[in-house]
C-alpha cells in the first residue's frame, strides 16, 4: 500500500512529454538518437540518486522492503523507457545504414579505378584492367540493389546480421570469400568475352580448372559450411537451454571480434584476422594473375582451415546453463541466526544468472525467482555506477507471504528465458 500511495504522488515518467524522442528522423534534436541519449541520461541520474538515498517518498522511507520495492519498480519503468528508445534508435540506424554501405561500395570502386590508373602509368592499359573494372561495377551494382531491397535491415550487411541483431563473424568471413570468388569469375568472364583468339579463350577457360584454384575452392567451401553449421549449432544450443542469447539493440562493428559481453573473443579474433589475411593474399594473386582463379597455396589454405576449426570449437564450448549452487538466509549486521521464514530475504548463490549482453536494467528487471508456486521478481538494488542486485553469481529476493511453510523448490528464470536447476529449501512459520 505504501508503494502504491508513493507512486500516485510521484511525478510523471520520462515518457510523458509531447515529443520526447519518438520520431526517427535522426537529424532534429528530438530524433531517435537524441531521444535515446536523453533517456539514458535521465535513467543514470535517477539510478545514482536512488543509490545515494535521494528521491524516496516519505510513505516508503520508513520500511526497507517497501523502499526497495518502490525503487526497483521506478527503475524498471525508467529502464523500459530507455529500452524502447534504444530499439527506436536501432531501427533508425539500420534504416540509414543501407546508404552508407552503398557509398562504401562505390568508394571501393573509385579506389580500384585510381589504383588501376596509377599502376597503368608506363605499363599501359590492358584488357585485364578493363575486365576488372567492369566486374567491380557489376558487383557494386548488385550490392547497391541488394542494399535498396534490404534497406530496413541494414542494406548490404543484412545477410551477415544474425538473429540476435549482431554481426556474425562466420557469415562476414564467408560473405567476403563469396564476393572475392564471384569477382574473380566475373573478371575471367569479361576477359573471355573480349578474347579474340581460340588459344586465349582456351587459356582463360583452363584458368577455372580445379587444379589451379583447389586451395581457394576448399577454403570457400569450408567457410560457407562453417557459417551454416554455426547457425545450426547456436540455434540448437539455445533451444536446449545450454546457451543464453539476448537480442542486441543494433549491430556494431565490434561484434565481429567480441562475444555477447562485448569482450574480445579469441576464437572470433583469430578467425577474422587469419581469414582477412588469406583474403588479401588471394586478392593480390588475382591482381597478378587475372587469367585464373586465385591459386591459394595449400599451406595458407590449411592455416585457414585450422582457424575455422578453432572458431567452430569455440562456438561449441561457449555458454552453459545457469545453475543454483546454494540458497541461504540473507543476514543483516546484528541479526540473529534463524531459519528461513516468510518475509525474510534469501540469497541465491550460483553462476550464469545474468546472460551475456543482459547487463542493462531492462534485462535485469526480467529476472524471476520461483519459490514454490510463487513468482518473485528480482528487485533492482542500485549502487553508484551499477547494481548490487542482481548479479551473475548472487541474487537476493524476499520470501513472499504466499509461500506455505514446509519444503519449497527455488528456481531462477533468467532474462533469456533459461531455467536453472531446482533447489529445495525449508520455510518455517
Automatic annotation (TrEMBL):
Keywords: Membrane, Transmembrane, Transmembrane helix. Residues 1-22 are annotated as: Disordered. The chain crosses the membrane at residues 103-125, 131-151, 172-194, 214-240, 261-284, 296-314. It comes from the Bacteria. Residues 12-22 have a biased composition (Gly residues). This is Integral membrane protein. It comes from Streptomyces achromogenes.
Amino acid at each position: 500500500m505504501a508503494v502504491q500511495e508513493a507512486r500516485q504522488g510521484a511525478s510523471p515518467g520520462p515518457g510523458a512529454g509531447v515529443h520526447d524522442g519518438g520520431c526517427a528522423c535522426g537529424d532534429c534534436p528530438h530524433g531517435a538518437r537524441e531521444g535515446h541519449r536523453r533517456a539514458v541520461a535521465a535513467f543514470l541520474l535517477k539510478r545514482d540518486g536512488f543509490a545515494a538515498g535521494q528521491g524516496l517518498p516519505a510513505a516508503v522511507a520508513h520500511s526497507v522492503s517497501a523502499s526497495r520495492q518502490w525503487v526497483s519498480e521506478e527503475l524498471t519503468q525508467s529502464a523500459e523507457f530507455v529500452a524502447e528508445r534504444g530499439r527506436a534508435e536501432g531501427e533508425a540506424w539500420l534504416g540509414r545504414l543501407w546508404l552508407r554501405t552503398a557509398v562504401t561500395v562505390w568508394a571501393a570502386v573509385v579506389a580500384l579505378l585510381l589504383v588501376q590508373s596509377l599502376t597503368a602509368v608506363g605499363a599501359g592499359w590492358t584488357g585485364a584492367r578493363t575486365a576488372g573494372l567492369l566486374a567491380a561495377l557489376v558487383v557494386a551494382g548488385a550490392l547497391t540493389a541488394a542494399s535498396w531491397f534490404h534497406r530496413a535491415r541494414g542494406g548490404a550487411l543484412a545477410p551477415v546480421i544474425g538473429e540476435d541483431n549482431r554481426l556474425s563473424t562466420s557469415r562476414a568471413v564467408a560473405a567476403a570469400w563469396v564476393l572475392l570468388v564471384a569477382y574473380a569469375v566475373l573478371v575471367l568472364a569479361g576477359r573471355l568475352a573480349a578474347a579474340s583468339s581460340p588459344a586465349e579463350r582456351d587459356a582463360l577457360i583452363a584458368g577455372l580448372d580445379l587444379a589451379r584454384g583447389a586451395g581457394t575452392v576448399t577454403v570457400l567451401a569450408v567457410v560457407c559450411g562453417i557459417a551454416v553449421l554455426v547457425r545450426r549449432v547456436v540455434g540448437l544450443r539455445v533451444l536446449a537451454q545450454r546457451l543464453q542469447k539476448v537480442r542486441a539493440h543494433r549491430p556494431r562493428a565490434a561484434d565481429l571480434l567480441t562475444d555477447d559481453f562485448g569482450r574480445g573473443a579469441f576464437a572470433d579474433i583469430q578467425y577474422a584476422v587469419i581469414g582477412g589475411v588469406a583474403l588479401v593474399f588471394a586478392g593480390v594473386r588475382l591482381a597478378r594473375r587475372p587469367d585464373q582463379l586465385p591459386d591459394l597455396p595449400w599451406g595458407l589454405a590449411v592455416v585457414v582451415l585450422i582457424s575455422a576449426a578453432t572458431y567452430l570449437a569455440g562456438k561449441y564450448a561457449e555458454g552453459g546453463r545457469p545453475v543454483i549452487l546454494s540458497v541461504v538466509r540473507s543476514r543483516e549486521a546484528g541479526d540473529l541466526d534463524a531459519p528461513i521464514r516468510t518475509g525474510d530475504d534469501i540469497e541465491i548463490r550460483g553462476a550464469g544468472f545474468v546472460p551475456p549482453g543482459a547487463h542493462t536494467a531492462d534485462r535485469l528487471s526480467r529476472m524471476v525467482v520461483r519459490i514454490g508456486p510463487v513468482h518473485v521478481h528480482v528487485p533492482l538494488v542500485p549502487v553508484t555506477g551499477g547494481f548490487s542486485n542482481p548479479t551473475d553469481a548472487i541474487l537476493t529476493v524476499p520470501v513472499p507471504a504466499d509461500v506455505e511453510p514446509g519444503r519449497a523448490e527455488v528456481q531462477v528464470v533468467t532474462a533469456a528465458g533459461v531455467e536453472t536447476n531446482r533447489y529445495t529449501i525449508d520455510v518455517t512459520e
